[in-house]
Amino acid sequence: MVIAFSKTKGKVEPLDFHSHEYYEIYVFHGGDCYYTVGDQIINMVPGTVLLMNGKSVHKAHVIKNENEYVRSVVHFKSNVVDGLMKKLECSSLMAPFNRNSVSVRRVINEENLEKIGFIIADLQGLTSLEETDFIKKEIQLGIIKLLMFIDRACRPIKPEDSASINTKKYYVEEIVLYLQNNYSKEITIEKISKELGLTSSYLSRIFKDITEHTIMEYLMYYRFTQAKYLIEISDDQTFKDIALACGFQSSSHFSRFIKERTGMTPSMFREAIQQKSYISPNSR
Fold first, then answer.
1. Quick check: keyword Oxidoreductase in the entry (predicted)?
2. CB 73 within 8 Å of CB 67
3. 185/11 Cα distance (integer angstroms)
4. 8 A C-beta contact, residue 210 and residue 41
5. Distance separating alpha carbons of residues 153 and 25, to the nearest angstrom
């Protein structure tokens, strides 16, 4: 599966925290935006490129005029290009997608940024055509060409260089890290505030300011991603065991949450995942 969008402008869907099973190449062209991936907060300037495996919870935060928010996105699964990459001896291009953290790059100049946009536009055109053997090969070559050009035309950026060093964002990153490390346990705002040595009201306020979500909303979505992973890798684990392993209060609480988020019962959700027919909402 390959999805490509070149220079998409404005919000075409609700921008919510999400994760997915495919790799993502995200290119920022313009607007006022920052991006959260896992526990990282990345300031976006035109020419910022994110390479990520998609499984980390992530979200673009558009700050001002939504119509000025412009990005190009490519989603693909590794098996689309693995075989050809091995033949071409360029499998090292996949290294950024095999890490838990995002790889942040900056395009060296505007001309290179334009060329990346053109390559993705070509991919977008190919994915809209009837899928023949030749079209499949062109798509494979297009993705490899894009990754090769990004490798040549961009420079790596360390997380500490890309993140804005200010107090609010620092504490939000600390909150997210705490949630990811403790999601299987009972978590309250009071526990987090005690851990970080700050008041509950302050933590709640700055998390909402930065992420546009409450701490508990983020926690429940993260628990959902972990439950989805356990359902995907295990056929025999009971929903009760999965619920408790992911921090849900009970199997009934887990069932209600899955129903509210997906419109399916846990059994239907498991079947959809196993048949690869479940598509996460808000995935661009």
1. no
2. no
3. 35
4. yes
5. 14
C-beta of residue 227 within 8 angstroms of C-beta of residue 242: yes
Could you give the count of Cα atoms lying within 13 Å of 284 in the half-sphere of its Cβ? Answer: 19
34, two tokens: 């920052």
Cβ atoms of residues 73 and 27 within 8 Å: yes
Q: Answer for the pair 50, 37: CB distance below 8 angstroms, yes or no.
A: yes
175: confidence class by pLDDT, cuts 50, 70, 90: very high
Which pLDDT belongs to residue 104? Answer: 92
Q: What tens digit of pLDDT does each residue of 195-208 get?
A: 888 899 989 998 98
Q: Identify the CA nearest to 75 among candidates 20, 143, 2, 150.
A: 2
CB 97 within 8 Å of CB 46? no
What is the helix, strand, coil percentage profile of the chain, to 5?
50, 20, 30
- Separation CA 83–CA 104 (nearest Å): 26
Choose among 279, 284, 280: nearest CA to 4: 284
Q: How confident is the model at residue 16 (pLDDT cuts 50, 70, 90)?
A: confident
Answer yes or no: pTM beyond 0.85. Answer: no
pLDDT class of 283 with cuts at 50, 70, 90 = very low
Q: Strands 2-9, 40-44: parallel, antiparallel or unpaired by DSSP?
A: unpaired
pLDDT tens, residue by residue, 150-174: 999 998 876 555 554 477 888 888 8
| DSSP for residue 18 | B
Are the C-beta atoms of 72 and 113 separated by less than 8 Å? no
